[in-house]
Amino acid sequence: MGVKARTRSSMVENVIERCIPKSIKGKDFVQICAILTASLGGFSAGAQLAWLSPSVPKLLLNSSYIGPITLEEASYFSVITPIFTIIFSFIVSVAMKFIGRKYIIGFVAVPHIISWLLIATAQNVIPIYISRAFNGVSDAVTVCTAAVYIGEITTPTVRGKWGNMLMCAIFLGHLSVVVIGIYCDIVTTAYIFLIPPILQILFAIFIPESPYYLIMKGEATKHRLRWNG
């Protein structure tokens, strides 16, 4: 029984190895592009997580673009996001089995875009609360999907060199929003950070689906023909 299990596992690994995309020249360009695309969601998640640092002090001022808010109102910003992250983590983990990794990677940009637009167009504190809820949804999608996708779409060599890109992107998002938020107002900052999720949607069109998901759906051969010629 143990031999049969190992044989079956070896067969699956061989199929997955053939399905993992490579460029015509045998380089790892497609895999790296897929990693970078998935990591854009991490960049946006990191930016929205650290957005509170430069923004809350500005929102407390009398000159705030939505009018001054109280410390109690500001305290809810950091509470709303994790609540929605926890709730939607269970939903996303189930959706991955039916929708696939690729489409969810593209979808994660949508709540990011909505969140930044709500911040940019807010007239009072309520839209910012709603934006934090969408931030929680996008965090759930990123945490549940991006790391899984990167692990499934890459060969061990590429994974070893680029596997930490998601975490790097998250912390780069932290740093970027703090630096930009210091020198730009809240509305301008929000519009600037609309760029990464828009790019993610565009790039997600071209990235391959996870071979593990395609094997589950019986589409491994079509995937191999499409990406490996």
From TrEMBL:
Keyword Ligase: no
Matches recorded under Pfam families: Sugar_tr (PF00083)
Subcellular location field: Membrane
InterPro entries in alphabetical order: MFS_dom, MFS_sugar_transport-like, MFS_trans_sf, MFS_Trehalose_Transporter
Main location, first listed in the record: membrane
GO-annotated cellular components: membrane
One GO molecular-function entry: transmembrane transporter activity
Protein name: Major facilitator superfamily (MFS) profile domain-containing protein
Organism of origin: Pyrocoelia pectoralis
